[in-house]
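From the methods appendix. Each design record in this collection lists the tokenized structure first, followed by the designed amino acid sequence. Records were kept in a plain field format so they could be parsed without special tools. The example shown here is representative of the layout used throughout.

RECORD:
FOLD TOKENS (335 positions):
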């Protein structure tokens, strides 16, 4: 029988049983040798360093310590990092790739619940659900008489900013609906947009012509404050900005000023800072719907991330290639 490679968990310890419930942990143990009671959350601890010395596969997640040269020196046999979450930017360093260590991420699996959340928010925003619910609660009677003009999702123009994994998944989820979906992304050309089935627009034109704009770009030096005073002013009166990407993509001072006029609405699952200060006006503005960064995998959804990692471990142990390998060359402009 072929000896199983040694693996080690590196994440917040309490997340291990959530991401790897019993049936997944059993599958993982069938292909790697791993002790679920040993979880590295500080690579300088003696027990973690002892485990690292034998580790060939590092199974990471939220709370993974940084893989700096000192940590990598303590893991001379390490050949793969399998991340049971989205972005690997927070804990990897260039040294990981310099040493030829393969990196895989469950980002594609984490994209699904974010896209689902955004789909729900687009459809609800198109019906002006948030404002009408508040008016109903205040009046204790229907806040309208007859058919409401200006709302509805038939033919509504929706702009997707960023053809990330989430942006692409959202485009798929929007396809069955009678919406006019467009895309803005400087790294996508017309043929690729055609393959995605959406028209490609410059960002300014998308902002000017869409009633709902949803942000799915990564946080980079180029995208910081991507949506500011000028961009918000381009959006038509009554339009909605949705952000499930990163808070830093939006100039929050400019957004608050615009929301105070009542001209626009916003759905924000991410903010800058995060969480917002206790006195932030975004908590109280009636046209701001703020949720606590829950669009990504939560509750039973995190087991989907564990399943992706288990499948990657099974491929490695059988000599196969990683299906969800991270490309270091494009990492800088990825989420």
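DESIGN:
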């Amino acid at each position: 029988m072929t000896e199983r490679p040694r693996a080690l968990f590196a994440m917040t310890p309490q997340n291990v049983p959530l991401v790897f419930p019993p049936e997944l942990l059993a599958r993982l143990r069938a292909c790697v040798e791993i002790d679920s009671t040993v979880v590295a959350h500080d690579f300088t601890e003696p027990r973690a360093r002892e485990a690292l010395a034998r580790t060939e596969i590092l199974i990471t997640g939220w709370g993974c310590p940084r893989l700096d040269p000192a940590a990598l020196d303590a893991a001379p046999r390490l050949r793969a990092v399998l991340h049971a979450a989205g972005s690997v930017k927070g804990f990897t360093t260039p040294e990981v790739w310099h040493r030829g260590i393969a990196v895989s991420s469950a980002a594609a699996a984490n994209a699904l619940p974010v896209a689902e959340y955004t789909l729900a928010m687009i459809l609800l925003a198109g019906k002006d659900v948030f404002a009408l619910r508040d008016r109903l609660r205040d009046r204790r009677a229907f806040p309208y008489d007859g058919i409401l003009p200006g709302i509805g999702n038939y033919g509504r123009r929706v702009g997707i900013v960023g053809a990330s994994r989430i942006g692409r998944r959202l485009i798929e989820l929007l396809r069955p609906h009678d919406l006019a979906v467009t895309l803005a992304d400087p790294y996508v050309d017309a043929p690729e947009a055609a393959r995605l089935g959406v028209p490609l627009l410059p960002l300014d034109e998308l902002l000017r012509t869409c009633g709902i704009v949803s942000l799915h770009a990564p946080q980079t030096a180029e995208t910081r404050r991507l949506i500011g005073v000028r961009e918000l002013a381009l959006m038509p009166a009554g339009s909605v900005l949705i952000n499930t990407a990163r808070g830093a993509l939006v100039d929050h001072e400019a957004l608050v000023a615009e929301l105070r006029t009542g001209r626009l609405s916003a759905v924000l699952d991410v903010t800058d800072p995060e969480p917002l200060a206790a006195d932030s006006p975004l908590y109280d503005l009636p046209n701001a719907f703020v949720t606590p960064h829950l669009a990504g995998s939560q509750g039973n959804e995190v087991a989907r991330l564990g399943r992706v990692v288990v499948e990657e471990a099974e491929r490695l142990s059988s000599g196969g290639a990683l299906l969800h390998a991270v490309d270091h060359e494009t990492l800088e402009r990825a989420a």
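APPENDIX NOTE: The CA atoms of residues 123 and 153 lie 7 Å apart.
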